[in-house]
């Protein structure tokens, strides 16, 4: 998932749609994020490339909306409702996820296992 | 020829060192004339010490190296102190004898008054004396490296022991003595006198680490402190208190020999009230002042572990055959047992051989301060008297009745019980539980302490080690020991940060989880209620929270962050992270553990510089599933295993974090005493996801 500056980033992604849960007067998603262009990428335990300043999922509330929707810890969030998450600050990312007027967030996430799954499937089903 | 006196047979053996000293006029012969044969062993001891002292003097005169001279001077000091102690004991004995000759007119005292408490073993270990250098001296390396040689002299009753000598300079924060000193026969009213002696370790400037050219330059231009030092060095006894204490009229002072001389720097006296099964801090009385050459800036306290094992806890006080029945049982069922009174219980065995065979006793009756023992009237059913022992267990009272063969047996058992109670009342807290005293094994290897370099600190590789363990394992174990030792002195607040499984997590019910700093997000106030926990334990007021957050106070922040963030959301972490096992490359010796800790400490400052929210989950009961492991799909496992890669810098620090603290659950298997890989990986992850290092937000 490392990127070459100036080149488009390609990744195998999965779409996850999370319905926000209302708790009192707040809408919560049930996960935590870490990362951002203003953060130290070396501290990220989930990223493969330690210069990756993307937004990663660091924790999932068990049974929460995110987990139910299929989000997993260590996922890298590429987009939220169409907004890019690969080049944002930490707080910008958080804001995009916690808009009060939105009930649902559609995430584009990527994880290593997805790439591997695709690779394996390619290998086992060679193209005709 | 023996010198005899008519009244008693006083023998000063011919040719003994004592006789020589008498001839030399150092001791008065008349002092020895009244000694009886009882004192001959003291005399032998004095003899022995005098010989040692002579030897030390000769060695001191002969040796050229500074280290050897210091050691020899230390033995000289010890010998002199011992001689003084023996002489004063001799004096006391003489006085007691004189008193005995006076007829006593006091009436017979009751048996309780003559009762003497049992003696015990007293052990003092892990002495540590903190120093208080000026920060300019300690950090900026200003000034000459003033080195002192120190050692401790410990005196209890007639036994005097000294610790090893330690060279102290301003790079040390504490003076640590690793020796365990055990005094065998101490009475409960003991007084353990601890004295710290020090001696300046430099006579001239070229003896230090200064290069020759610099040394000559320095010595030729004397500044104020340098001049003071030189002057002090030239008159070693100038600012010391009277070295022999002036208390011994019998004994002339220590023979003056050229060479280093130790002076008393601090002293304290410990007694039964200071005995505890853990480390305690005691105050020191410091003598001397800054002007003296042997001065060290002591913080004023001393930390040590003083343990006592009274003999009533370690030895069998009474043993014999008895018949026991429990109250409330059939009066006819008397069980014949072999009973042993020791420590806090009366153990009843079926056979006498069971005692040595380490078989579990058939019946154990507790004997402690709450127990009530009564001798009842003569039992009409059988011979001998009954003794009843009552204990309260919980709410109920349990009584056992003992029956002995004869009246004499009953009397001796009662006597034993009374003595036991008396001992327990005298030894107080030492009789609650048996305190462990580790006898220093002669082959214990000294840990590598490069700063406290002395001739005698060497790395010993025990041949009793498993031959298959490699040198690196031994090194690693040594590092661990070194680490443990260094941790004794560090402040507990920041150490506790790295104790992931420490009970501090129970502290978080008190600490608010969300610490808001610097009002970064304007919509923080209304977000707080969501974060404010549903659980009853935490205090949800937002106003409180914002004021409480403080990064600089370690105890606050650690409480509010790591346990909160990790407590609720990873109840079953091992299943997810079990595959996050460390690659073999991470198994390196933790040589940099202390440095690594410091570096993460610095990193902490970075992570918390900006505003951050503690990523704690409100444990809304609807969300918190008791066994989320089952709900985790296999997909997550695979994903975590592959996405969780280790970054080199953080992994080393966090691995040392989690293993550096001597957590109780670390297994003894393997040289590193590592916890299980699952736990370790979890701890690694938790350490790395510490919001202080890396900002995380909860959405």
TrEMBL record, chain A:
Keywords noted in UniProt: Acetylation, Cell membrane, Cytoplasm, Membrane, Nucleus, Phosphoprotein, Wnt signaling pathway
Gene3D superfamilies per record: 2.30.42.10
Region of interest: Disordered: 39-58
Entry GO CC: adherens junction; basolateral plasma membrane; cytoplasm; nucleus; postsynaptic density; postsynaptic membrane
A single MF term (Gene Ontology): protein kinase binding
Subcellular location: Cell membrane; Cytoplasm; Nucleus
GO BP terms: cell-cell adhesion; establishment or maintenance of epithelial cell apical/basal polarity; neurotransmitter receptor transport postsynaptic membrane to endosome; neurotransmitter receptor transport, endosome to postsynaptic membrane; receptor clustering; regulation of signal transduction; Wnt signaling pathway
Residue span(s) of domain PDZ: 15-112
Short name of one Pfam family: PDZ
Membrane topology label: Peripheral membrane protein
Listed name of the protein: Tax1-binding protein 3
UniProt source species: Poecilia mexicana
Lineage of the organism: Eukaryota, Metazoa, Chordata, Craniata, Vertebrata
Automatic annotation (TrEMBL), chain B:
CDD domains: PH_rhotekin2 (cd13249)
Bias-annotated ranges (Low complexity): 530-554, 573-587, 619-679
Calcium recorded as keyword: no
GO biological process, one term: mitotic cytokinesis
Region (Disordered), start-end ranges: 497-587, 619-699
Signal peptide: none
GO terms under cellular component: actomyosin contractile ring
SUPFAM superfamilies: PH domain-like (SSF50729)
Keywords (A to Z) from UniProt: Coiled coil
REM-1 domain segment(s): 17-99
Highest taxon of the lineage: Eukaryota
Protein name: REM-1 domain-containing protein
């Amino acid at each position: 998932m490392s990127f070459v500056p100036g080149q488009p980033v390609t990744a195998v992604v999965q779409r996850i749609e999370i319905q926000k849960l209302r708790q009192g007067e707040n809408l919560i998603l049930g996960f935590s994020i870490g990362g951002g262009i203003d953060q130290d990428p070396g501290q990220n335990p989930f990223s493969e490339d330690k210069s990756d300043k993307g937004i990663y999922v660091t924790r999932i509330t068990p049974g929460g909306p995110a987990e139910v929707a299929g989000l997993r810890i260590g996922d890298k969030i590429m987009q939220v409702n169409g907004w890019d998450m690969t080049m944002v600050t930490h707080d910008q990312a958080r804001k995009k996820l916690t808009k009060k007027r939105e009930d649902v967030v559609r995430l584009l996430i990527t994880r290593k296992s997805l790439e591997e799954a695709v690779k394996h499937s390619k290998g086992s089903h060679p193209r005709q | 020829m023996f010198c005899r006196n008519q009244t008693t047979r006083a023998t000063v053996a011919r040719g003994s060192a004592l006789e020589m000293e008498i001839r030399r006029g150092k001791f008065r012969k008349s002092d020895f004339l009244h000694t009886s044969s009882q004192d001959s062993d003291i005399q032998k001891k004095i003899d022995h010490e005098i010989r040692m002292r002579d030897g030390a003097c000769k060695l001191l005169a002969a040796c050229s190296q500074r280290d050897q001279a210091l050691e020899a001077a230390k033995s000289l000091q010890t010998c002199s102190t011992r001689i003084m102690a023996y002489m004063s004991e001799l004096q006391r004995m003489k006085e007691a004898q004189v008193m005995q000759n006076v007829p006593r007119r006091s009436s017979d005292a009751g048996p309780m008054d003559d009762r003497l408490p049992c003696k015990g073993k007293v052990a003092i270990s892990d002495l540590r004396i903190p120093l208080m250098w000026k920060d300019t001296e300690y950090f900026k390396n200003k000034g000459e490296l003033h080195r002192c040689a120190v050692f401790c002299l410990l005196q209890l009753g007639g036994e005097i022991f000294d610790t090893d000598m330690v060279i102290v300079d301003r790079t040390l924060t504490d003076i640590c003595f690793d020796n365990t000193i055990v005094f065998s026969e101490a009475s409960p009213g003991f007084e353990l006198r601890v004295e710290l002696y020090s001696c300046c370790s430099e006579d001239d400037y070229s003896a230090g680490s200064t290069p020759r050219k610099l040394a000559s330059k320095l010595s030729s231009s004397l500044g104020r402190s340098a001049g003071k030092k030189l002057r002090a060095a030239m008159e070693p006894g100038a600012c010391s208190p009277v070295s022999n204490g002036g208390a011994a009229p019998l004994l002339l002072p220590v023979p003056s020999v050229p060479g280093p001389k130790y002076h008393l720097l601090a002293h304290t006296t410990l007694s039964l009230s200071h005995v505890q099964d853990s480390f305690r801090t005691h105050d020191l009385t410091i003598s001397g002042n800054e002007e003296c050459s042997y001065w060290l800036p002591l913080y004023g306290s001393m930390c040590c572990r003083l343990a006592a094992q009274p003999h009533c806890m370690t030895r069998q006080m009474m043993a014999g055959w008895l018949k026991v029945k429990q109250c409330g049982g059939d009066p006819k069922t008397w069980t014949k047992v072999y009973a042993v009174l020791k420590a806090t219980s009366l153990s009843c065995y079926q056979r006498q051989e069971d005692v040595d065979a380490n078989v579990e006793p058939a019946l154990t009756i507790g004997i402690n301060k709450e127990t009530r023992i009564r001798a009842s009237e003569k039992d009409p059913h059988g011979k001998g008297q009954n003794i009843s022992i009552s204990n309260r267990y919980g709410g109920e009272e349990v009584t056992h009745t003992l029956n002995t063969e004869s009246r004499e047996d009953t009397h001796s058992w009662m006597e034993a019980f009374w003595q036991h109670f008396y001992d327990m009342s005298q030894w107080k807290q030492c009789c609650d539980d048996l305190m462990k005293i580790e006898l220093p094994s002669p082959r214990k290897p000294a840990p590598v302490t490069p700063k406290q370099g002395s001739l005698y600190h060497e790395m010993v590789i025990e041949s009793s080690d498993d031959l298959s363990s490699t040198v690196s394992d031994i090194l690693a174990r040594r590092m661990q020991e070194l680490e443990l030792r260094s941790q004794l002195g560090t402040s507990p607040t920041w150490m506790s940060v790295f104790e992931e499984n420490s009970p501090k997590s129970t502290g978080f019910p008190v600490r608010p989880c969300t610490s808001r700093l610097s009002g970064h997000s304007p919509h923080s106030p209304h977000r707080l209620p969501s974060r404010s926990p549903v659980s009853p334990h935490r205090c949800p007021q937002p106003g409180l929270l914002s004021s409480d957050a403080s990064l600089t106070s370690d105890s606050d922040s650690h409480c509010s962050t790591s346990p909160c963030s990790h407590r609720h959301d990873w109840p079953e972490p091992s299943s997810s992270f079990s595959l996050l096992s460390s690659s073999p490359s991470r198994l390196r010796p933790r040589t940099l553990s202390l440095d690594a800790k410091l570096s993460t400490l610095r990193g902490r400052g970075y992570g918390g510089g900006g505003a951050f929210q503690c990523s704690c989950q409100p444990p809304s009961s609807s969300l918190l599933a008791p066994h989320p492991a089952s709900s985790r799909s296999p997909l997550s496992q695979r994903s975590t295993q592959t996405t969780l890669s280790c970054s080199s810098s953080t992994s080393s620090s966090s691995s040392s974090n989690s293993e550096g603290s001597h957590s109780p659950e670390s297994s003894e298997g393997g040289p590193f005493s590592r916890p299980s890989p699952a736990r370790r990986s979890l701890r690694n992850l938790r350490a790395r996801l510490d919001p202080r290092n890396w900002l995380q937000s909860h959405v």
